[in-house]
Amino acid sequence: MNSAKGKVAEIELAPESHSPAAYKMFNRIVDWITSDRMQLINVTDRINEIVRKSGVREGIVHLQSLHTTTAVFLNEWQDALLHDVRGFLDDLVSRDSPWRHNDPQFSDCERKNADSHLRGMIMGQSLSLQVRNSAVLLGTWQSIILAEFDGPRSRSMSVQVSGI
User: Fold this and answer.
1) Which of the 8 DSSP states describes residue 13?
2) Domain 23-163, CATH
3) CA pair distance 72, 30, nearest whole angstrom
4) Do residues 70 and 63 touch, judged by C-beta distance below 8 A?
5) β-pairing, 126-132 with 135-136?
6) Rounded distance between C-alpha atoms, residue 118 and residue 144, angstroms
7) Most buried of 74, 87, 94, 117 (most Cβ within 10 A)?
């Protein structure tokens, strides 16, 4: 069906078959141990390894941090830029502001990590990317980055790959 907004995708046929290719769903939980309060980790290779092992050639990979004080995002993995990202987040959300979450009068949280929650909220805890030819589709300079805002801690990310 063609329209001004695009074409509806057709179902690919499995090789030597007249039936649709089998749709697959592959799930993994991936763990990291962080070493700093704010840390950026390039997880691109590990995610691509999971996509390859999934057997999905064409589809979607959905990444979801399982923590409110971490984030997952795309950006260039370049030392000067990573330094700027850390500085930007420090300037945007000050650790020393009088956050209620850190005040025993209002909260029972002993970690005093309101800034970490706010940074995680701003950056986001999930990311969905295309899978093409059994790999994550990324632009020339794009890397998948896991951001730790309340470390050091043990962290987990759910990775779901779906497609054909």
Assistant:
1) B
2) 2.60.120.460
3) 13
4) no
5) antiparallel
6) 20
7) 117
Give CA–CA dist 64/128, Å, rounded.
Answer: 9
Output b/e per residue, 41-64; b: 16+ Cβ within 10 A: bebbebbbebbeebebbebebebb
Instruction: Using alpha carbons, list the distances in angstroms from residue 155 to 69, 70, 103, 164.
Output: 10, 8, 25, 29
Is the CB of residue 158 less than 8 Å from the CB of residue 47?
no
Q: What is the pLDDT along the chain (164 residues), one digit of tens a residue?
A: 434 444 444 445 555 555 567 999 999 999 999 999 999 999 999 999 999 999 999 999 999 999 999 999 999 999 999 999 999 999 999 999 999 999 999 999 999 999 999 999 999 999 999 999 999 999 999 999 999 999 999 999 999 999 99
